[in-house]
Input
Amino acid sequence: MSQSSVINAGDNVLPGVKNVVLVASGKGGVGKSTTAVNLALALAKDGAQVGLLDADIYGPSQGLMLGVPEGQRPRVEDQKYFVPIKALGIKSMSMSYLVDENTPMVWRGPMATGALRQILTQTRWGELDYLIVDMPPGTGDIQLTMSQTVSVAGAVIVTTPQDIALLDARKAIEMFSKVSIPVLGILENMSVHICRECGAQSHIFGSEGGVNVARQYNTELLAALPLSIEIREQVDAGKPSVAADPESEISLIYREAGRKMVEAIDNLSGEPKPRFSVHDD
Ligand SMILES: Nc1ncnc2c1ncn2[C@@H]1O[C@H](COP(=O)(O)OP(=O)(O)OP(=O)(O)O)[C@@H](O)[C@H]1O
Ligand SMILES: [Mg+2]
Output
């Protein structure tokens, strides 16, 4: 790890960034990345300046989800700082911008945390209302590194209503409470499947799980997103739902979740902040 990524207590490593929000879960594959990108786009739609940091060093996915062409690299300024790549109206930074797509990340823990520190501290975000961080699954080194490197406004916990995912969601909540990161709310993903043909609803992964966890930890259910082929197809095509069709039923759920998240941040800080600055790009 280079000297430049050594952080001293009190350093403001993200000047200009007002709120850092982690999108996290205990279990893998529950839809963090899909949620993170749609939430980021939802906030931008409401006029906020938004950045999206892919903190999944081993399996970065945001480049694909934002439709950034393979091989596009961030510009480097002053031989040290990455300039985030703009896509769909937000700024983004991901390990996938720095490595070959076909190179598997076989790093040991300390190397991965070093790499995360480096993209965290050496990206010039400029002025941002929100930096949404797409976290890898689990409650390990990367989570600790984040909490120790930057001041975090709060975490959004993504879970499916399945018992095993809920158990892991609880672990994630407990971990964030240990490192004094407030939970802004729970987002239940894949909560209900709606049949395209007949409209019948089935609770494939169970029901009510998210709302129960939210109640137990005295936090809010920000949204319940259905298991929807549209969500998967759009994100896979590099145009997540909120960008593909901002007024669709699904996009409106993400946008409502974004507003509730903003409210939760405002409530924590005691006073509503001046919301968003108008930006012209
Ligand atoms: N609500 C949904 N409906 C249908 N498919 C979804 C939904 N949410 C996510 N998916 C799909 O599920 C898969 C996993 O989602 P995603 O990559 O966002 O999960 P993740 O929690 O970030 O995974 P990982 O733990 O590996 O980082 C993707 O193929 C995504 O398109
Ligand atoms: Mg992911």
